[in-house]
Amino acid sequence: MLSQIKLGYKIAATNLGFSMPYQLNFAITYWCNSRCTFCKIWELKPQNELTLEEIEKFVSKIPFIQWVRLTGGEPTLRKDYVEIVRAFSKLPNLYVVTTPTNSIMPDDIYKKICQVLEFFDKKYVITVSLDGDKETHDRVRGVPGNWDRAISLYQKLRALKKDHKNFGVFFGYTMYPENVGVFSKMLSGIKEIMPEITVNDFHVNIYQTSETYFHTGGAQLPDGYAAKAIKEIESILSMRQKKGIIGTIENRYLQMGIQYLQQGKTPMPCNIMDMSCFVDPWGNVFPCIIFNEKVGNLRETDYDLRKILGSEQTRITKEKTEKLQCPNCWTPCEAHQLILSNWMKSGSVAEKNKVMAE
């Protein structure tokens, strides 16, 4: 409860200009064993990524961070994944660490998650990527048998919640041009195996392109994608239930996603660098996973993120994002913070913390 209250006040303070960002999106590796049609990260052969020692030094200088997203590539391909989480567990006001996984190596992934849960006492959330029914998912992910592994891993992780109240697991579904429209079919197939699964067990995302993160550059959405995605969002919203802070944010993200798809613009003011930033595996710092405008590198500032966030380049980049002089996106990695920003600006912090505790 205390960490939730601290996060609530931090969100409010950040949006009033009194604080450093509270959230970090950190790609700890770009090694990936998927072969996705919608992402080119797997084509990279990255070298000289930040070492564990460098990450530990970085963590020691960001006491203001409370919400950490460890992403990739496939984050668990790092042999020191557990030790990286241990490093972040030492943040004094940490509330939550989240990690997505492709489930391709389910036994190794499960083992590492169990090792984390042996020492980690903050909120820890794993998102199992699932982008359609069996045929669709395996096709867009490029790995035969991936759907079966994802379902198996999810079942094992869901069982861990009985003994670890701080642990959460969700499916992650992204509407790509290759799979948009298959959500209902996918859900029906899963419910045959796990009848208890509902729409609220899914984090639903809108497809984006990005040179900074996905390495897809100027890829264009095909004609008709927006209309199909809007139809699918409306269907998903009709099935979702509002439940606490997560349900509220997820619903708002999808509702505003319709506006984004209709207009092609970020549907609310973007002051993202007041709330979070993106760090790639080499320590390059960007405002988000979409805007390819580097503001600094951790190795050049003795791993001190504050020096980068306080730089003239960051000030210039902030002005661009606030004026939406950027690619304009609606990815949950940044949209969730923006939703919280606008949400926290109305009503008392105490009222918001009450919802966050539900």
Count, helices: 13
Terminal CA distance: 10 Å
The spatial strand order of the largest sheet comes to 6-5-4-3-2-1-7-8-9
- Give a quick account of the main beta sheet: strands, pairing sense, barrel closure: 9 strands, mixed
Q: Roughly what percent helix?
A: 40-55%
Q: What is the H-and-E element order?
A: HEHEHEHEHHEHEHHEEEHHHH
In total, the number of strands is: 9
- What's the gyration radius in Å? 19 Å
β content, as a range?
Answer: 5-15%
Structural summary, described in words:
The chain is α/β, with parallel strands linked by helices and 358 residues long. Helix content is 42%, strand content 13%. It contains 13 helices and nine strands. The protein has helices at residues 2-15, 52-59, 81-89, 106-119, 134-141, 146-160, 183-193, 225-239, 244-263, 305-309, 312-322, 332-344, 349-356, and strands at 23-27, 67-71, 96-101, 123-129, 167-175, 202-206, 276-279, 284-286, 296-297. A nine-stranded mixed β-sheet has the order 6-5-4-3-2-1-7-8-9, with helices on both faces. β5, α7 (183-193) and β6 form a beta-alpha-beta unit. α2 (52-59) runs parallel beside α3 (81-89), α8 (225-239) packs antiparallel against α9 (244-263) and α9 crosses α12 (332-344). The radius of gyration is 19 Å and the shape is globular. Mean pLDDT is 90; it is low at 346-358.
